[in-house]
Specification:
This protein is of the alpha/beta class and 245 residues long. It is built from nine helices and five strands; from the N terminus they run αββαβαβαβααααα.
Length: 245
């Protein structure tokens, strides 16, 4: 049974995933503001150059004595190339009494400094809640910020005898579903398992045929036959009109 901290952190991770593909080179971050065991504010980093998750969660809220959950350590640095002010001063000014963090920021400019400033201001800080999931979510960012190299995911499959297909079949699965999930989906694209059932969305089964049927360019056999019949009628009408003339 997940703890209360884990449930709220899972919500942070889910919110953070909404910024996927929009915040690079920044990390994915989600934040939830909780007071009396209820969520009173939440937000995520929505786009590069936009407000950070903590700012969106605290905006317009009475955060005095509340707990702020953040999937990644709040930033504490300012300087050249940074488009927004650091979040730590805002958190301190908001009046929150406790901050719960999923993963430490591996950016050398932050790397524990945000936590030090929060503690120095008298705010209780708890770290490592869903740490593995939080670090996994920002694996590409951590790779780049610590090495300067891009994060690359390569999926390759080969059978023992070198066969890559079967005659008559257009799609042959060699790798398993676990590899597909890793290479195609982030860990929290769907609602995390810690959320109550009524708030968890069931992932859609991968069905290429159904996806094609839902495409605006797809024409079902029934519609195609009707269109062909209509075209024949139109051609016959034009021929009759031409003969009459």
């Amino acid at each position: 049974m997940p703890s209360l901290d884990e449930k709220f952190m899972a919500r942070c991770l889910f919110l953070a995933s909404k910024g996927e593909g929009k915040v690079s080179p920044n990390p994915l971050v989600g934040a939830v503001l909780v007071k009396n065991r209820r969520i009173i504010g939440e937000g995520f980093h929505e786009k590069f150059g936009g407000a950070h998750a903590e700012v969106n969660a605290l905006k317009g809220k009475n955060a005095k004595d509340a707990t702020l959950y953040v999937s990644l350590e709040p930033c504490s640095h300012a300087g050249k190339g940074k488009k927004t002010p650091p979040c730590v001063p805002l958190i301190i000014k908001s009046g929150v009494s406790r901050v719960v963090i999923g993963a430490l920021d591996q950016n050398p400019k932050v790397s524990g400094n945000g936590i030090k400033q929060l503690k120095k201001a008298g705010i209780k800080v708890k770290t490592g809640v869903l740490q593995r999931e939080s670090e996994k979510q920002n694996e590409p960012f951590f790779k780049f910020i610590t090495t300067g190299k891009p994060f690359i995911c390569l999926k390759m499959a080969q059978t023992k005898d070198g066969v890559i297909g079967i005659r008559g079949k257009s799609n042959v699965r060699i790798s398993g579903k676990q590899f597909d999930a890793y290479s195609r989906n982030s860990a929290y694209r769907q609602s995390p398992p810690h959320l109550p059932d009524e708030r968890r969305k069931k992932p859609r089964a991968h069905n290429p045929g159904q996806q094609a049927a839902n495409s605006p360019f797809f024409k079902s056999p029934g519609k195609r036959k009707k269109r062909e019949s209509d075209n024949r009628d139109k051609r016959a009408a034009r021929q009759e009109k031409a003969q009459a003339a």
